[in-house]
Amino acid sequence: MTNHRIALIPGDGIGTEVVPAARRVLDAVGAEHGVSFTYRSFDWSCARHLREGAMMPEDGLDRLREHDAILLGAVGYPGVPDHVSLWGLLIPIRRGFRQYVNVRPIRVFEGVESPLRSAEPGSVDFVVVRENVEGEYSEIGGRLNRGFPEEMAVQEAVFTRAGVNRVLDYAFTLAARRTGRLTSATKSNGIVHTMPFWDELVAERAAHHPGVSWDQEHIDALAAKFVLDPRRFDVVVGSNLFGDILSDLAAAVAGSIGIAPAANLNPEGDFPSMFEPVHGSAPDIAGRGIANPLGAIWSAAMMLDHLGHPEAATRVTDAMAAVLAATSVRTPDLGGTASTEEFTTELLARL
Ligand code: NAD
Ligand code: IPM
Ligand code: MN
Predict the structure, then answer these.
(1) For residue 39, is it within any domain?
(2) Which UniProt keywords apply (predicted)?
(3) Which residues have a Cβ under 8 Å from the Cβ of 59 and sit 6 or more positions away?
(4) What is the largest CA-CA distance in the chain?
(5) Catalytic residue positions?
(6) Residue ranges around ligand 2 (CB below 6 Å)
(7) How far apart are CA 30 and CA 313, in angstroms?
(8) Which end of the chain is more exposed for a tag (fewer CB within 10 A), N or C?
(9) DSSP string for residues in 56-94
(10) ipTM for the whole complex
């Protein structure tokens, strides 16, 4: 029996509804595959911020450090400004643990209706690899002259050679393991100064991965192609902000942003990696028990793969596909009437 120490951070809103669903799935599939989990649950959230004045304790990262992986729901909720909740929890974990790759796969499952008629089940199966610790999400800048006519906000985008190269290498290597195609999201028509640098690095790294054919698309045109012809993509690599936007768009193309998973990886394994659905805390549906747990469950499957249990991971994604293909049990975002709980129970029956 292999045991893994898992830190659970359900967070806010539907994060507290989908993480328990993912945990049920982990326990069930773990029991079948000789894997057990020791969980530690952290109540770090906006509720904690309102109560104690901080999203997490000062030694939060040290406490997480002892775990093999982190499973997070979502953070951010009305009552605490987003910049406070996000810079107080999510971003420090991604940066502090050098989770510089954010892997966000997407598939159109059989039985799920894509809003695009051309996106037949099975035809869309690609991965967005997002740079996760620098780029447009930089800490350099701020707001000045609040309330005055001269009020202004400035933020410097920061792209480092080392930071871009390492995420590119991850993306090229992933593309080589898949169908050998990579698309780089850019905006290199001379307007955004950082992007010609990004493009140069892509061309340089490509020379180290001769088995991969690659191209680049301007982010605006790329967004249109995600909608018009999502089948053409395999691995799409983008900066922090571009990758963020593309992954919600990809999820919507596949039927719902409630489906999409994310792995925040520290590929070297020096620090725990973190797994979380792409979606947020969804305050508009929180507390009603109707959130789609698939994003969290698929994230848990990515965690299993990361922890060295690829068969268990595939078993979970197969069960996800089976429920969608063979039953009409699904949550309202996918046109069904099932609750989070009912959907999870149906999925467990198919594990
Ligand atoms: P959101 O993803 O929470 O919601 C967008 C829309 O998608 C809503 O209509 C919501 O009901 C729907 N939705 C999302 N997940 C769903 C699911 N699993 N099942 C069914 N429907 C689902 O995005 P938002 O409204 O922009 O953000 C809400 C809060 O979440 C903000 O505070 C934001 O900062 C935060 N957020 C956190 C994370 C994170 O922790 N990783 C990610 C995104 C947003
Ligand atoms: C995501 C989220 C976060 C991001 C926000 C909440 C800071 O949208 O994980 O996709 O932009 O990274
Ligand atoms: Mn996002």
Answers:
(1) yes
(2) Oxidoreductase
(3) none
(4) 65
(5) 137, 187, 220, 244, 248
(6) 76, 86, 90, 244, 278, 280
(7) 10
(8) N
(9) S-TTHHHHHHTSSEEEEEE--BTTB-HHHHIIIIIHHHH
(10) 0.99
